[in-house]
């Protein structure tokens, strides 16, 4: 994202401690799950939250809300069970553009006072509620703004079915505070129950135990008994149906989408089995998917029990399902063990990319996983080049103080983090590394952890004073230095070597239609398109398009990569498809590079602004905040 110049001086920041009491909770199979958060764990201050969890911290949320599509608001109460750890007279929440109506203490609903702090552009306001030393429960009555950043209200026309409106939330990174008054830090975990009232013709689902069909009242109740951080709070409301995939897996989607989704994600259960084989038991009971309308800004969001996923992966050939492996992997890295602050984001995503590739290797073989590694490396090189090889934002451990944490959601966390973990695996061997990662997930289960704590664990449990091993692992070079460490070997792919042969033949003058491309996966096509020269003649573009029908591809990854070439080479044949794509797809991964390419020339910028004016209402705030800055 484009950096913002913001000053946080004078703001009250989160406390330095995350405290939690020992909790035991039954799982679906009767096994007892015990939280390891029994001791005072010192974590770094979260500079993106006003909460002061070292003084008073939330432990459980009871949410009772009404979803109003006419007003585009959510209203109701958020009741928290709290631990007043120091006997303080206040508890601090995060709030952004919320209308706070009242605050109450205890089961008797005793009214109390509250105070909203000064507004910061992306952090919002502190919400300080007056409590007593013995207060155990705080209830906040509130209403959201119609333009709450986490809430995407879609008209019927913006859905697949075209008959009913749709709502979904996106709370990561610090947007939960725009739809719930909450201690909005990944270092604070809580369980929750919810009661949600929606129009009777619609179904509500959450990051919790979910219904599988509509009822006649429009009132739905939910339970999440495993403690989660605020960014994993999720709600969606729409004309949804459910289809079972396996014993623990299923899919929610609009009726018009459900069959295509059920086909595309038919191997979800195999992925779950493969994941458990590598890193142990899945601890969230069910793993379901919700296929959202195209405006969803990400590929997927790992909300516990219910991954939100973009329809852009519905390629009709199961070629893009590594995204599902990625979101499933988050059930261990991110959801089970969570980054303590957004400066530690690589702990969520680096582990998840590594685990995703292991799942895909288990299912489809090493050659398949090798292709994913090469594509990931290409993305990483592009990000490093874009940011600058010496930029501190290419460190794994970030410093995002004073900035929107979304600026840290880059390929550095994902791909550099993955290659760091692959480097450790290479240094110690896969069996030993797998044992280490299993120990890591078990030791820190249902907790948040920082980069420092992970590295301490790495040194004590794996390196164990071995200086030669420490040098191979190279913590300083990977975690605290820019770019990629000296001596890093780029990944290679035997399947991509054959793609490169075909490309070189085309480059030497062989017609595209005569190239050997039979049985190429979308990854091979993507690699081919990425190899194409920056500048091509219209004849070359037309030759490729006629042979491979790129402009009309049903694969969003291939299509987006092709559009970058069509823009740079003024290939007007693709203009209509480009506008259709930008108007209907809200995934930021595709939008930003395409709009950047258009923005590079005066004529292109004119085209970009015209398309954006029509398309912007279809995009989530996560996308528009980036694109508004880009196209201003």
Automatic annotation (TrEMBL):
Major location (coarse): cytoplasm
Residues covered by the Peptidase M1 leukotriene A4 hydrolase/aminopeptidase C-terminal domain: 494-631
Cofactor: Zn(2+)
Protein name according to UniProt: Aminopeptidase N
Matching CDD domains: M1_LTA4H (cd09599)
Pfam families, sorted: Leuk-A4-hydro_C (PF09127), Peptidase_M1 (PF01433), Peptidase_M1_N (PF17900)
Cell compartments where the protein resides: Cytoplasm
EC number: 3.4.11.2
The keyword Hydrolase belongs to this UniProt entry's keyword annotation: yes
Catalytic activity: Release of an N-terminal amino acid, Xaa-|-Yaa- from a peptide, amide or arylamide. Xaa is preferably Ala, but may be most amino acids including Pro (slow action). When a terminal hydrophobic residue is followed by a prolyl residue, the two may be released as an intact Xaa-Pro dipeptide
Family recorded in the similarity comment: Belongs to the peptidase M1 family.
Gene3D superfamilies hit by this protein: 3.30.2010.30, Neutral Protease Domain 2, Peptidase M1, leukotriene A4 hydrolase/aminopeptidase C-terminal domain, tricorn interacting facor f3 domain
InterPro entries per record: Aminopeptidase_N-like_N (IPR045357), Aminopeptidase_N-like_N_sf (IPR042097), ARM-type_fold (IPR016024), LTA4H_cat (IPR049980), M1_LTA-4_hydro/amino_C_sf (IPR038502), M1_LTA4H (IPR034015), Peptidase_M1 (IPR001930), Peptidase_M1_C (IPR015211)
Keywords on record: Cytoplasm, Hydrolase, Metal-binding, Metalloprotease, Protease, Zinc
Natural source organism: Pontibacter aydingkolensis
Signal peptide: none
Keyword Amino-acid biosynthesis listed: no
